[in-house]
Amino acid sequence: xIYTPFAREAFVFIVNADNPxxxxxxxxxxxxxxxxxxxxxxxGGNDQEIQTWQRPEDSGSQTVMQSQVMKNxxxxxxxxxxxxxxxxGMIKVVAEYRNxxxxxxxxxxxxxxQMNDDKNIKLLAIxxxxxxxxxxxxxxxxxxxxxxxxxxxxxxxxxxxxVGVVFNxxxxxxxxxxxxxxxx
Length: 184
Fold this sequence. Notes:
Blueprint: E1 2-16, E2 23-24, H1 26-34, E3 51-52, H2 60-70, E4 80-85, E5 89-94, E6 103-108, H3 109-115, E7 121-123, E8 125-126, H4 133-137, E9 144-151, H5 157-167, H6 169-177
Parallel strand pairs: 2-8, 3-6
Antiparallel strand pairs: 1-6, 1-7, 1-9, 4-5
């Protein structure tokens, strides 16, 4: 199999737009989500308890959070909410992000800026590096996920045409319109 990168996406941390914190270090992020840091004042914010929001265990966001960000550091238990289930009655699930003044959560940049273009949400810089398209393309932003096209070694001419479209000017322009960073 041939793995060919064609776009990059950033894994970002989101807070309320009114939160005075604009950047965290990688270690501060791990400390917040492990429970070692529990007050925004510790990282330059207001004297408020930090309310962390996580994603469900089987989600792509949670997988990236555990593997790239937390590495071997155990995360605190996620906030849960009860929902009705047809088969099991009320069940507990990981609660959705709520954009309160003391909240912090995470997602992929595309979801935060395109699918949920909420002006009340702010993306945090990590180590002083904002998750801009330029910083994602050049690899300066620390949490990047590459999107790959996977093909067999002996591809057909039809497959080669599809690969060509992804990498031609129209494919690159389309990736840019989708707010992916196509210049890997």
